[in-house]
Amino acid sequence: MPEIEFLSIFQGIATLVASEPLILVSRIALIALGIVFVYLGVKGTLEPLIMIPMGFGMSSVNAGVLYLSASTTGTLFIDPTASDPIQLLEILQIDFLQPIYTFMFSNGLIACLIFMGIGVISDIGFMLIAPFRCMVIAVCAELGTLLTFPIAVAMGLPYNEAAAIAMVGSADAPMVLYTSLLLARDLFVPITIVAYLYLSLAYAGYPYLVRVMVPKELRGIKMDQTTIPNITKGEKVTFAVITSTLLCLLFPVAAPLFMSFFLGIIIRESGVKQFVEFLGGPVLYGATFFLGLLLGVLFEASTILNPKVIVLLFLGITALLLSGIGGIIGGYIVYWASSRPFNPVVGIAGVSCLPTTAKVAQKEVHNANKFAVILPWAMGASISGVISSAIIAGIYVTLLR
Amino acid sequence: MESFWGSVKLMLFVYALAAAVSLTVAWSIKMIFAGVKMQKARAAARAAALAEPSREPDNGAADRAD
Predict the structure, then answer these.
(1) A67 shares its domain with A202
(2) Which of A146, A158, A242 sits opposite B15 (nearest CB)?
(3) What's the complex ipTM?
(4) Are residues A274 and A367 in the same domain?
(5) What predicted TM-score, i.e. pTM, was given to this entire model?
(6) How many domains does chain A have?
(7) Distance between start and end Cα atoms, chain A
(8) Which domain holds residue A354?
(9) What digits encode the pLDDT tens for the residues B22-37?
(10) Which terminus, N or C, of chain B has the lesser number of Cβ atoms within 10 Å?
(11) Which of A20, A53, A76 is the last residue of a domain?
């Protein structure tokens, strides 16, 4: 029987022991953090759709490091650095998640698939109830997306990276992924993880922001539901086709996002049940699952050793906080300018975390006045937020790519 | 480090442009609605106009019967 070295059997432990102290601590910390994400996801504190696959991916990839040769270590999950065609072809046959990364992730396809799903679950009719009011709120709710940009530059980030992290303020994680892939490829993993992490927390944090900024008597304002016009499918489809064409014409770099979102809307309105169920079910949730899993698997120890990660964590929360404040300011502007009663809480829904922020707005209003319903306007503001975020993403990418 | 004031100027430009395009989208919705409303009104008027002559022979027939 040959001499057996036990550490050569348990290579995950062997590579852990052999690594530098900083890598060792980082790997253990990420394994623990991954487990915490799974726990908080299962518990419902963080968004389970993303956090469970992401946390599990994080803990698995940081545990499963092995010796690929006598001197190199790696995993059998993915190699995001592979760029040489021959090397890539080889890795595609070895690393089990590499095909999804190469053919769906690094080209932004996964973000577009999620956008198609979001389009299918979005009733554009809500936005058409009061287009100007919804859009004013949405533009105000981009405050974080805009103000974080110079803050990030002041903290030492170059323009492209500053714009990529500022997009967290749009509260639209697939959009953040798409923008960071185009603007800051080296940082897209930490930026997207920061976005998803904070978006999960926003659901818990925004209600407090609403209570701080809007007094209870204003939170309880009832809105007149009799003024909601009846919008036909034809009108919705006409709007989607014209707007998508216009936006693709203006910002071709973001055209895949615009097309995907409005295609989802048109599919929904066309009433082709099979497509609606396919895009709103398997495509949306399949893409979300693999997005979470891949982000987790890409979050290796070397990622958190990047000193920029601390800066990104600060900027991400700043962006979301400013966007929330901006959205409520937008709600107040419409409240003061509108001739009809308008609940300023709708403003928080302008932060386009569809449909989470709309639900937060409705819940806060319901707590203040159980007869008040603002969900249609809140959904309208949220959908407008998706459109305004895509417009800003298009401008940033066009100018800074 | 890239210029901070440059980034502030760029931010203002991006915000202004994004606001202008977003409000243009909202305006296009208004225009679509106005167009649809106008078309509906025109179609209703045309339908009423077509209905008018068809009523006249009936009236004539009624007159003759009297």
Answers:
(1) no
(2) A146
(3) 0.84
(4) yes
(5) 0.86
(6) 2
(7) 60
(8) 110-400
(9) 999 888 888 887 888 8
(10) C
(11) A76
